[in-house]
């Protein structure tokens, strides 16, 4: 494990981490936050899950079903843009440390594009996050560089649905075709693509306080939760300031409440949608 100075805003990324990120499209970093720091963040995280912090409309939804599902049945509770709805989180320790990682992996000028909470409820075999490439969800922009920091609030295991990746896909020339999973964008946000026979996936269990960081092209997803506990993750995506400005000019904020015309117009050259 890399020795980290306590309470520092900087996480030290090594040359080997940078090499893995460039080669595989993702990297596992140990100890981004300490257990005590995670426990502190988890207090407010759980207030979101109990709906004590108001999250309007489709920004509180299920990523394993359509918008019509009753919240008590959600398999993957998805809170989009928590810092928008809870400004006390702006510049919290997670944001600061994740920003230092993004800068070291992708260079200067990276800013937080969006944040998100993804919590798989216990005993939900269908809490499957479908295989996808993040770029399929986003508008095309000249600079697509991305560092998405996926922080484990709980130990993330094969049994509770940890992340899995297909490393080679980060170097493919074009995105895989993606299709809506539970109806059109008015019914659900989720997109997915099928694995090919030749794809070799790696499963990446990580400890509470560790993170993975992935780019915009690597194919990834996760399996169901077969355990008694939640699988909670806090996700922060960093992209270049120019890219974030371009997205906002298009009316794209990563809110599921963005206009349907905006959400329908995503993916590189519109090639990613098959229906
Ligand atoms: O949390 C998961 O299972 C999937 C997350 C994901 O796909 C992402 O952060 O891009």
Write the layout of secondary structure elements.
Elements: H1 15-24, E1 26-29, H2 35-49, E2 60-62, E3 76-80, H3 82-85, H4 93-106, E4 110-120, E5 129-132, E6 146-152, E7 163-166, E8 179-180, E9 191-192, E10 202-204, E11 211-214, E12 219-222, E13 231-240, H5 241-249, H6 260-264
Antiparallel strand pairs: 1-11, 2-3, 3-4, 4-13, 5-12, 6-11, 6-13, 7-10, 7-12, 8-9
Bound molecules: 2-oxoglutaric acid.
Task: Explain what this protein looks like in three dimensions.
The structure is a single chain. The chain has 275 residues and is of the alpha+beta class. It has a single domain, classed as q2cbj1_9rhob like domain (Jelly Rolls, Sandwich), CATH 2.60.120. It is built from 6 helices and 13 strands. The protein has a 7-stranded antiparallel sheet. Strands 5-12-7-10 form a 4-stranded antiparallel sheet, with no helix packed on it. It is globular. It starts with 14 loop residues before the first helix and ends in an 11-residue tail after the last helix. The C terminus is likely disordered. The site of 2-oxoglutaric acid (AKG) has 10 residues, from β6, β12 and β13.
């Amino acid at each position: 494990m890399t020795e980290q100075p306590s309470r520092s805003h900087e996480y030290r990324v090594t040359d080997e981490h940078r090499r893995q990120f460039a080669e595989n499209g993702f990297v596992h970093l140990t100890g981004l936050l300490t257990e005590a720091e995670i426990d502190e963040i988890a207090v407010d995280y759980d207030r979101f899950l109990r709906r004590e912090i108001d999250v309007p409309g489709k920004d509180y939804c299920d990523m394993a079903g359509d918008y019509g599902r009753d919240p008590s049945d959600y398999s993957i509770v998805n809170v989009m843009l928590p810092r928008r709805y809870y400004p006390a989180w702006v510049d919290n320790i997670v944001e600061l440390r994740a920003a230092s990682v993004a800068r070291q992996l992708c260079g200067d000028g990276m800013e937080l594009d969006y944040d998100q909470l993804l919590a798989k409820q216990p005993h939900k075999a269908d809490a499957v996050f479908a295989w996808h490439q993040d770029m399929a969800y986003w508008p095309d922009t000249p600079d697509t560089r991305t560092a998405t920091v996926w922080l484990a609030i709980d130990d993330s295991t094969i049994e509770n649905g940890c992340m899995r990746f297909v490393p080679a896909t980060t170097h493919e020339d074009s995105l895989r075709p993606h299709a809506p999973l539970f109806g059109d964008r008015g019914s659900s946000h989720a997109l997915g693509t099928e694995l090919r026979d030749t794809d070799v996936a790696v499963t990446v269990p990580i400890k509470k306080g560790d993170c993975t960081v992935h780019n915009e092209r690597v194919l990834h997803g996760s399996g169901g939760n077969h355990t008694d506990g939640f699988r909670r993750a806090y996700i922060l995506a960093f992209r270049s300031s120019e890219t974030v400005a371009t997205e906002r000019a298009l009316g794209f904020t990563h809110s599921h409440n963005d206009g349907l015309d905006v959400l329908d117009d995503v993916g590189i050259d519109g090639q990613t949608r098959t229906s």
